[in-house]
Amino acid sequence: MQTILAYLKTFFSNIGAQILSMTFVDVIDIAVLAFLLYYVYRFVRERRAGKLALGLALLAMLYALASLLEMHAISFLLDNFFQVGLLALVILFQPELRTALEKVGGDPLRSIKNLTESKEIAAHTAVIDNICIAASDMSRDRTGALIVIERSTKLGDIMKTGVQIDAIVSQSLLKNIFFNKASLHDGAVIISDYRVAAAGCFLPLTQNARLNKDKGTRHRAGVGMSEVSDAIVVIVSEETGEISLAIDGELLGGQNYSTLRKQLTDILLGDVQAKKMPKFSKKDKKKEDKIDG
User: pLDDT tens across 144-179, in order?
Assistant: First the structure.
């Protein structure tokens, strides 16, 4: 007991001395560290890595307690365990670490995208319109589809799993690719730089246990792709004809031509550019209703 009290007295004395000697740089250092720790906590909170992180934290607490109480056997075992702990962390958290690095690296790049040039806006709008019309037509015909729109995270490794195409995005091309007798209809189409870059691609499946069990492989692949990148994935169900969007690991179902076009416009052009989009005339409205029907 005296050993514990002496240790606590020394511990708090050291903390007091450190607080008194703190500078402005030290405050910034602590704030940055707190932000990083919060980001890590938020990232692993709802993933499988969360349980692994909790287990490692408990082992670290046990190791500290064993060292404090001089429990030599437990200290020896945990000391040897933590000697290879860094390598074990890299192996255990490999999928999560890759996802985190891709998203951290993608956000700054996304923020410097310049979508205000008229040519770029026109190119985005043409891609959006063709995707929405094709998705609506395939929804009506109960044709399954999986369309991945690349953003700041490059998808070259995913494209290599399919067939390279490099063609202009058109509703006819998309519908032909996903025609149920076509050889590439089971895979995903990757749209990069306003063009169809590849088709028949294989996407990573999500392991999210919260996803509705009724959703099949196509939906799980779409959500999985949105988890490991900032891509937008348009999914058309072959069974029900429902159109869904996968964004940042979330599945947004119940889409139609109008809602899908608005979602893609808001994301790809940004809220400011979306407000500048021309309003639909009554003629255009009738055309939309016909497509939705």
Answer: 999 999 988 888 889 999 999 989 999 999 999 999
Say yes or no: 106 and 129 in one domain. Answer: no
Whole-prediction pTM: 0.56
Q: Looking only at Cα atoms, what is the longest distance across the chain?
A: 86
Give just the sign of the alpha carbon dihedral 254, 194, 190, 42: negative
User: Do 243 and 129 share a structural domain?
Assistant: yes
129 shares a domain with 157: yes
Summary mean pLDDT of the chain: 77
* CB neighbour class for 83 (10 Å; exposed up to 12, middle 13-18, buried from 19): exposed
Residue-wise pLDDT tens digits, 18-63: 777 778 887 888 888 888 777 766 666 655 555 666 676 777 787 7
Measured distance CA(63)–CA(134) in Å, rounded:
59
Q: Give the relative orientation of helices 85-92 and 94-111 as an angle to the nearest 10 degrees.
A: 70
Distance CA 99, CA 93 (A): 10
Do 273 and 281 contact (CB within 8 A), yes or no? no
pLDDT in tens, 202-226: 999 988 878 887 888 899 999 999 9
- 203 and 188 Cβ atoms separated by less than 8 Å: yes
- CA–CA gap between residue 46 and residue 32 (Å, rounded): 23
Please report, for the domain that includes residue 145, its CATH number: 3.40.1700.10
How far is it, in rounded angstroms, from Cα 110 to Cα 152? 6
